[in-house]
Amino acid sequence: MSQTFSGQVAIVTGAASGIGKSIATALASQGASLVLFDQQKDVLEAMVKDWKTPYILIVEDVTSETAVQKSIDAIGTDWGRIDILVNCAGITGITNIKTHDVTDANLRKVMEVNFMGSFYTSKYALPWMLKKNYGRILHIASIAGKEGNAGMLAYSASKAAVIGMTKVQGKEYAETGITVNALAPAVIKTALLDGMPDEQLKYMTDKIPMKRCGTLEEVANIALYIVSPQNSFTTGFTFDLSGGRATY
User: Fold this and answer.
1) Residue 18 and residue 9: Cα distance in Å, rounded?
2) Measured between alpha carbons, how far is 121 from 68 in angstroms, rounded to an integer?
3) Taking burial as the number of CB atoms within 10 A of a residue's CB, which of 90, 105, 176, 240 is the most buried?
4) What SS3 class is residue 103?
5) 227 lies in which domain range?
6) Which of 155, 203, 225, 248 is catalytic?
7) pTM of this prediction?
C-alpha cells in the first residue's frame, strides 16, 4: 500500500541507526517533515544530507523530561502541528545475566531509556495532537516484551512496560482521532548482527518459524502503515513482526 505523508510532521527517536533510521528515511521519502532525536549528531547529519524534505535534528537524551518537553513544545509552536511520533530509541543493557545478578543501576538505566523516554515523548506530543484531533503514535516494543528473554530481565521488562503503556494510551485517546500502537519485532537484520557468531545467530533465528531475521525494509513497511491515515480503527494494539514466533 502506498501512503503519502505530505504536510505531516513526524518525530522519530533513535533515528540515527537501525529501525529508527529506516522508518525516518521511509517517512521522508513519502513527504513527511521530520524531527529526528538522537545523540549521534554526526551520524544524523550524514544521514539527511541528500534529503529533500524539511527536517530538524535534535541531539539530546530522551530520559530528560525537561529537555523533551522543551523540544517538543518548540516543534509544535514552530511547525504548528505534530502528527506522528515513532519511539525507536532503546538499549538492551547488560544481557546474558540472571535475575539474581542484575544490578539496580542497569535495570534503572534500561527502564529510563526504553520506557520513560517513550513516556516523556508521548506525554508532550499528545497535547499537540489533541489540538488537531489527529495523531499517530508508534512505540517500538519487542518480542521480548511478550515472551520474556532469559538473561534479559531489564530489556524484557522495559518492553513489556511499553506494551502496557500502549494499551492504556490506546484506550485513553480512542475517541480523539489519535491512535497509539506498538510493534514487537523479533530479530531484525541490522549492522549489530554482522559481528555476531554464526552459532548465536542460529540460536536466535531457530526460534523463528521462518528461520530468518526480519529486514529493516519490512519494519519500515509495516510502521508506515501503522502511522498512516489508513490505520484509523486499530489502537492499543501490538503488531507482530516475528516471522510467526508470536501468533497471539
Assistant:
1) 21
2) 6
3) 90
4) coil
5) 9-238
6) 155
7) 0.95
| Residue positions counted in the chain | 248
Of the pLDDT bands very low, low, confident and very high (cuts 50, 70, 90), residue 196 is low
Cα–Cα distance between 147 and 135 in angstroms, integer? Answer: 29
* 2 within domain boundaries: no
Cβ-contact 26, 3 below 8 angstroms:
no
Asked if residue 132 is part of any domain, the answer here is yes
Residue 180, SS3 per DSSP = strand
Cβ-based neighbour number of residue 80 at 10 Å: 11
> d(Cα 112, Cα 95) in Å, to the nearest integer?
17
The answer to whether residue 248 is domain-embedded is no
Averaged confidence pLDDT in the chain: 93
Q: What are the C-alpha distances in Å from 145 to residues 13, 134, 142, 187, 236?
A: 19, 28, 5, 13, 15
Domain tally for the chain? Answer: 1
The answer to whether residue 86 scores a pLDDT higher than 70 is: yes
Q: Please report the pLDDT score of residue 1 as a whole number.
A: 41
What pLDDT, in 10s, does the model give residues 102-116? 999 999 999 999 999
CATH number of the domain that residue 213 is part of? 3.40.50.720
- Looking at per-residue confidence, does 165 or 204 come out higher? 165
Across 233-245, average pLDDT: 96
Residue-wise pLDDT tens digits, 53-64: 999 999 989 999
Pairwise CA distance, residues 24 & 215, whole Å: 15
Contacts of 86 (CB under 8 A, 6+ apart): 10, 11, 12, 13, 20, 23, 24, 27, 137, 138, 140, 223, 227
Active site residue 173: no
